């Protein structure tokens, strides 16, 4: 099992929660103090370097118009870490292909990062969570289509070597694509994507041999997704399992009490709110899902999980908190409950967890937990051959 | 006067230009060896770190689909240098706003870099040179319009603090813009624009108080354009105006004349990189009158005259400054006099096969033996220090 250190790089210094409707999208940027922001960026980057020194891999993502995530352009931080670190792999999860306007630029940025890092990039591509629609003003009903079309263009740009090619599709039209540079890794960096509900989408991801990751979901939910992926994978469940990733919030303490306190600070991330009008742009999810929602079938993460007590969150596997022994046990339990997975994406920093505590958290995890979970699902060997062209 | 180290980060190990139709746009990327590329990226970034140590500022740009420039996304290299340097200002010149698909993303990237660098970013925006149109597949007739609409949207995103705003432009439609982060510098980073022939555009740059930059042009041409800027500049203090005028030559400084000449020939490679004719003048990129004049034979243009002439000619024109430190200083001074003064010296000090050792030597000689004299001779005597509000 590989572990990847992660923070969304939050700006936690917000007005009282009841004084504004939404952390995301609409909380005015007047709240952002650039001096504090500058300190936070550099501090978070320092923590990534520490994680690398301690032998963890690194994961980054991007979000827009939200204090929950200052990383508004993940290729930038990926480039910084490509240059500053030397050992760990760097996972971008993910480039929001559906909301970004030009997949060729994404292909170029990833190729540049891959070269600067000398082949340590894992490149993820995502649809983008629903609230991102408002910042990008893309059509929510087209996001899945755009993601796959964009992926196809990116893969072709990465792997076409014999001169310019043209590309005509509903969303993008290019006349002469011939990117310089090309990726360092051949045929291209490992590709990751995420998902939470769309079954056929998971099948498609599995057929392409892409890595698949799920975040902050209860284990029952994750089992369903992972089993689906395993079933559809052409190279069998064992190899498929090694391409599965899960992200919990992780708090490791010297004592259970310390860990618990740490976990409460990290929980800020789950508490952060997105106003109702930003949560479900029409067409983002399929019609039948909306029908079922109106029938009251889903509690969903936004309501149930946000309200749950810490014990429940730990039971679900959304949070893993405790002494090193306890966290090892929780990881093993989650691993068993979901039928195995090869990549543990650890949100070890969130909210008000300060630098000193974050470093403690990273260090305890890296030194006391990680060595004891490495054997799970056997680490990724040379990445399994992925399809060079995205298709159906 | 401030001096800025620059390289386009070339991949010079491509087939001889005489054996391929074009080095730009269509030279197949099979000629790019990623291992060599990785070494080159890290080497060029190391040289920028050296520039910071030597007290020079840093300039970056981006180009696409070409062996002449591996920096395909300037915000990435700017972010790296924002993090790894501590003194130098970092000028991206520029973000190709006309060819990029989303000015809000550019605004976000610039804000992030400004924060990480703690306020050391100079943000430039360009139309993009003609051959970029093919990689981007944008409409060449619209590039100027897109540039300005993009800049307007970007500046608004940087400076709007009252929650979400919407934007209905000709090219971009946004429903609720509220960028996080915002820039470190208030009201926003200094803005730079390049230009070479469009005087109306230069006047717009001047009216907005942006810095105007020209690259690799003969001094007569440069004089004309700088005069156009000065006519419309909004600053009362001529020193403040001068601070907003920039020029880039190729620069090669050697211990001896012979050494300088070796370096000069190597950096002049940049001018020899060819762009096949079909990529040079996409229809509508330049106005009709310009094309009529071209067909009449009015212009020799940089692509021909400058490309084929030797380094002596380039030196005469101020396109290439090379020699011993004394000689380089004199050439800067001569150019300064020819063009009626300027305040920012952008220097392409690395190009082509100029290797790491040679680049370091040239940069260091310039920084230690030429720059102090330049700083003294052309020091800004501002009426009110640090006055420039844009």
CATH topology (fold) name of chain A = TIM Barrel
Counting copies of identical and different chains, the oligomeric state is heterodimer
Instruction: Tell me about the largest β-sheet of chain B.
Output: 8 strands, parallel, barrel
Task: Report how far apart the termini of chain B are.
Answer: 19 Å
Largest interface: A-B, 69 and 65 residues
User: What is the level 1 CATH name of chain B?
Assistant: Alpha Beta
- Structure annotation, total helices of chain B: 15
Strand content of chain B: 15-25%
List segments of chain A where confidence is low: pLDDT < 50 over at least 5 consecutive residues.
Answer: 381-392
Assign the CATH architecture of chain A: Alpha-Beta Barrel
**Strands of chain B, total number:** 12
List how many beta strands of chain A DSSP finds.
12
Count of discrete domains of chain B:
1
Query: How confident is the prediction overall: mean pLDDT of chain A?
Result: 92
- Rg over alpha carbons of chain B: 20 Å
Here the CATH topology of chain B equals TIM Barrel
């Amino acid at each position: 099992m590989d572990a990847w250190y992660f923070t969304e790089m939050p700006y936690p210094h917000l007005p009282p929660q009841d004084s504004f409707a939404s952390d995301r999208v609409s909380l005015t940027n007047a709240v952002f103090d650039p001096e504090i922001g500058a300190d936070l960026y550099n501090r978070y980057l320092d923590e990534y370097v520490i994680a690398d020194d301690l032998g963890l891999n690194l994961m980054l993502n991007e979000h827009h118009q939200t204090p929950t995530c200052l990383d508004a352009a993940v290729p930038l931080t990926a480039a910084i870490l490509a240059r500053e670190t030397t050992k760990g792999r760097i996972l971008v999860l993910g480039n929001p292909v559906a909301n970004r306007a030009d997949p060729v630029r994404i292909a170029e940025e990833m190729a540049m990062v891959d070269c600067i890092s000398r082949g340590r990039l894992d490149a993820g591509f995502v649809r983008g969570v629903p609230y991102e629609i408002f910042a990008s003003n893309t059509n929510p009903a087209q996001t899945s289509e755009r993601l796959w079309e964009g992926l196809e263009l990116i893969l072709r740009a990465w792997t076409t070597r014999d001169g310019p090619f043209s590309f005509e599709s509903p969303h993008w039209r290019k006349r002469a694509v011939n990117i310089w540079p090309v990726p360092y890794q051949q045929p291209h960096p490992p590709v990751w994507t995420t998902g939470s509900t769309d079954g056929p989408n998971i099948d498609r991801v599995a057929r392409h041999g892409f890595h698949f990751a799920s975040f902050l979901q209860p284990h029952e939910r994750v089992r369903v997704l992972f089993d689906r992926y395993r079933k559809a994978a052409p190279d069998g469940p064992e190899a498929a399992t090694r391409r599965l990733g899960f992200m919990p919030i992780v708090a490791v303490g010297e004592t259970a009490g310390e860990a618990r306190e740490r976990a409460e600070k990290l929980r800020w991330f789950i508490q952060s709110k997105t106003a109702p009008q930003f949560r479900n742009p029409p067409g983002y999810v399929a019609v039948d899902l909306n029908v079922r929602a109106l029938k009251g079938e889903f509690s969903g993460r936004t309501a149930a999980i946000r309200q749950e007590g810490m014990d429940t969150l730990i039971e679900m596997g959304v949070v893993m908190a405790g002494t090193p022994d306890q966290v090892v046990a929780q990881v093993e339990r989650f691993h068993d409950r979901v039928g195995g997975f090869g990549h543990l994406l650890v949100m070890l920093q969130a909210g008000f967890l300060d630098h000193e505590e974050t470093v403690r958290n990273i260090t305890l995890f890296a030194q006391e937990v990680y060595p004891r979970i490495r054997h799970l699902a056997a680490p990724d060997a040379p990445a399994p051959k992925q399809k060079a062209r995205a298709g159906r | 006067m401030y001096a800025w180290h620059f390289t386009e980060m070339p991949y010079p190990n491509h087939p001889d230009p005489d054996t391929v139709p074009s080095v730009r746009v269509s030279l197949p990327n099979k000629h790019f060896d990623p291992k060599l590329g990785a070494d080159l990226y890290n080497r060029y970034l190391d040289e920028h770190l050296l520039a910071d140590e030597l007290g020079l500022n840093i300039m970056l740009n981006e180009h696409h689909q070409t062996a002449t420039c591996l920096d395909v996304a300037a915000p990435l290299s700017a972010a790296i240098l924002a993090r790894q340097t501590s003194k130098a200002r970092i000028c991206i010149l520029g973000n190709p706003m006309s060819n990029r698909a989303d000015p809000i993303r550019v605004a976000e990237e610039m804000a992030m870099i400004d924060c990480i660098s703690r306020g050391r970013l100079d943000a430039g925006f360009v139309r993009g040179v003609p051959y970029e149109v093919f990689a981007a597949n944008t409409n060449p007739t619209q590039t100027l319009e897109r540039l300005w609409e993009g800049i307007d949207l970007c500046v608004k995103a940087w400076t709007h603090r009252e929650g979400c705003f919407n934007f209905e432009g000709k090219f971009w439609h946004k429903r609720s813009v509220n960028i996080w982060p915002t820039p470190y510098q208030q009201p926003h980073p200094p803005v730079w624009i390049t230009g070479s022939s469009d005087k109306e555009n230069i006047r717009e740059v001047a009216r907005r108080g942006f810095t105007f930059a020209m690259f690799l042009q003969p001094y007569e041409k440069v004089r004309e354009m700088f005069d156009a800027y000065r006519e419309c500049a909004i600053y009362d203090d001529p020193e403040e105006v001068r601070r907003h005028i920039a020029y880039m030559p190729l620069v090669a400084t050697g211990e001896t004349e012979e050494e300088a000449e070796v370096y000069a020939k190597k950096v002049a490679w940049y001018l020899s990189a060819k762009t096949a004719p079909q990529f040079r003048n996409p229809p509508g990129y330049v106005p009709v009158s310009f094309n009529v004049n071209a067909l009449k034979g009015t212009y020799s243009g940089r692509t021909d005259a400058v490309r084929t002439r030797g380094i002596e000619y380039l030196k005469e024109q101020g396109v290439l400054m090379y020699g011993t430190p004394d000689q380089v200083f004199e050439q800067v001074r001569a150019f300064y006099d020819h063009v009626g003064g300027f305040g920012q010296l952008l220097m392409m000090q690395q190009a082509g096969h100029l290797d790491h050792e040679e680049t370091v030597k040239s940069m260091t000689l310039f920084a230690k033996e030429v720059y102090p004299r330049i700083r003294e001779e052309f020091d800004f005597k501002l009426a009110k220090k640090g006055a420039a509000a844009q």
